Amino acid sequence: MLSGGTPSAEPTASKEVAKTATSSAAPAMAAEVAPPPPPKPDPAYVVAAKTRKKIPFWAMATLSLLPVWAFFYLLAVSPQEREATGPMAIGEAVYGACASCHGAAGQGGAGRVLHEGEVLKTFPHIEDMLNYVYTGSQPFVSAGLAVYGDPTREGGAHAPLSYNGNAMPSQGETWGGGLTNYEILGVVCHERYAIGGADPKSEQWAAEFATWCSEDSEIFAALQSGAVNFDTLAETFSMLETPPREIGTQPRASK
Ligand code: HEC
Question: Minimal CB count within 10 Å: which of 163, 165, 178, 219?
């Protein structure tokens, strides 16, 4: 039979004992300990070391981020890591809508073959290709033009609707197409330089690439900003070293 009061009585008692023991022992111990000897004065160089400005605590954390910074710095400055922008990048994206007929690599399908120099044979000058992609097949037929592109084309001139009778859909606004002028330039750059086989570093194509398709093409920038269009571009840029020829938005024979 345990009563509720009994267990609590014992801890209280032992606490009191402990208290008494401590208070009686403390003065005795304090008396035995000798006063500490006065500290030796620090030499001047130790004082200097102790009092000079320390490296702040956050410096270590900051320094530990140095490799991270170095990684991104190298990523940013190495040219091969840079993302492509400008006409070629836009053209690659726009070409997605052309690939269903012309093939992802320009190998042809419902639309004509573009790769291995084929499209360059049809359009030795980029201006004529811009005009044709803007316009499409039907306006050439309506205008009674027997040929589009180079009439002396190696392998024979291309007549509108001569490829299984299929039409190249009009891309420019005048003819109900959905592409802006700069998008047409972008996709034409892609077809000539990424698919068609023109080498931007070659003597034959370097000037055309720099003027129309490079990242710092002034013509592309002016089309993108809306400062010029396919009708006004030739006149605006007539001062360039390789001045552009007329493009136009109406079907026309290649020059
Ligand atoms: C619906 C299918 C189709 C689509 C989509 C299409 N094309 Fe075509 N494309 C053709 C056909 C067909 C021809 C040949 C037209 C003719 O004979 O009149 C052609 C011809 C061309 C030519 C001339 C090639 C040559 O050497 O004669 C170019 C350049 C061209 N297309 C660019 C484009 C571009 C750029 C796009 C996307 C913006 C595109 N095409 C989308 C069907 C298509």
Answer: 165
Ligand 1 midpoint to CA 70 (Å): 47
User: Tens digits of per-residue pLDDT, 161-212?
Assistant: 999 999 999 999 999 999 999 999 999 999 999 999 999 999 999 999 999 9
**Amino acid, single-letter form, for residue 129:** M
CATH (residue range 87-236)? 1.10.760
Best mutation site among 92, 107, 112 for ligand 1, i.e. most ligand atoms within 8 A of its Cβ? 112
Q: Is the CB of 192 under 6 A from ligand 1?
A: no
Cα 30 to its chain centre, rounded Å, is: 76
Whole-number pLDDT of residue 80:
61
Looking at residue 84, what is its pLDDT?
54
Q: CA dist 194 to 26, 100, 237, Å?
A: 92, 17, 25
Cβ(248)–Cβ(230) below 8 Å: yes
Mean pLDDT of 110-120: 98
Q: In 10 A of CB 215, how many CB atoms? A: 13
* Residue 214: CB atoms within 10 Å: 19
The response to whether residue 120 sits with its C-beta less than 6 Å from ligand 1 reads: no
**CB count in 10 Å sphere of residue 67:** 8
Coil, helix or strand at residue 221:
helix
